Amino acid sequence: MSREARAALFFLAPALFVLVLFFFIPVIAGFALSVTDFDLYAIGDIHNLRFVALRNYMTLLRSDIFWTAFVNTLYFSLIGGPLTVATSLLASLLVNAKAARFKALFRTIYFAPVVTTLVAVAIIFRFLYHGRFGMINRALDAIGLQGADWLGDPRWAMPAIILVAVWKNFGYNMIIFIAGLQNIPEELYEAARIDGAGAWKQFRHVTLPMLGPTFLFVGIVTAIGYLQLFAEPYVMTKGGPLNRTLSAVMLMYEEGFKWWRMGYAAAIAFLLFLVIAAATLLQMRMQERR
Amino acid sequence: MKKVLLHAALIAGGLLTLFPLLWMLAASFMSNGEATTYPPHVLPHAATLEQYRQLFVRLNIGRAFFSSATIAIITTLFSLLFNSMAGYAFAKLRFRGRERMFGLLLAALVIPAQVGMLPLFLLMKSLGLVNTYWGVIIPSLASVFGIFLIRQFMLSIPQELLEAARIDGAGEWRIYWSVVLPLARPILATLAIFTFMTTWNDFMWPLIVLSDQSRYTLPVSLANLVGEHAQDVELMMAGSVVTVLPVLALFLFLQRYYIAGLMVGSVKG
Is the CB of A108 less than 8 angstroms away from the CB of B255? Predict the structure, then answer.
């Protein structure tokens, strides 16, 4: 082994040790766990553990609560994701506009929710959404509109949580979009103007296509994050009302760490991984086709 | 006219973004029940530190603050060392299988942490680390994102600098420690802020690993408190301020580094 290779081994060792032992092996073990009936009895005595092949998956696919959690997670991601990305794009266009002043200040303000603690945010909004004394209903009241018990109403609970996610996360993508916008050469806009393109046409035919790779990155990161929805419903609704905000990760948490049905919970985690991988590949394919 | 509309939109967006945070701050200085009166108070009538006193004296939130700070600081220090060492190896040292190994690590970014969480918990249990700070810290001692961040930055350090040091007889550790690391200071600052904030804000893993209330981090404490104090708006807002303020302040002072890190992270995708 060359001197450099030996040095490399030395420098890589600590990080790789941590990643292999505390990430890669658990991930593989997670799959192994999902084909066993690991539960409270197995924690007590490992001899109670049995191989059950795909039984956990079969049970899951036949259970109503799993489909509820699954559909809720998709609802949150498919509505909340695009809504967040659209808000981010709008914010980046405003902040990046040539005529805009105090750009740095607005950028900082819009970004602030990203660094705030999610649990604290969920608690703040829990009170803002309150049916009787929440500020949101009081504001609606002031302009003569009828509010609702946002988090207590099965129809409104998920939209309310989506709005929190948009507020919390749009600043992150906004920064990425600003970087993307600043990379578009000014000549392209000039050429479009010479061809007589107005503001909308320039946006449609120059800005949007040039932001393609940025959309891909933002879309993938947002999808991965949103499919792992957990803290918002855990703090704001406990998955209710009527399980309307129960997410896949929340179900996994409850099955695994509340009822200790870890084999079953591992199957949920693995199915979630498949969905995330599919969402990532799908977006990459869509980008290629364009 | 267009300029006025643009700024109206910017300001409206800013107010909507800031309102929840400002309301949190205002309500935290109100006395019991003031945040729920009708007509509503936006600002406290007579600002009081009553909620903070209750939080620190009766509910002992200081302990959760200590837990959060300890965990975040230790995680940050170790991950700086481990990730910078690995990032350095991937950027500057030649060895077989380097690109393949790095690509494999990057591909792992799509694997959600939850897939490994159940076995990780069992592993921690068998190591006797459940309900300890180390149980929270250890899985975050190195991260693919951190290694990536460091590597991207170190690629731009000229190879000649390292060769010159080698000719002068410097050992590999000396080269890394006294030649490369000082040059990498900006990206180390970025990684430090990232790691600190992520660890400070993390919720699910500490919730799983820590079972004893006296070891809870701030987010876990808050989520626990809101169950018992669902009606105590002002108290919960004070708790939120205590949790959010350190990271928000850190961001405001060091946002230059933080935003630079986001950009690097997004370049390669």
Answer: yes
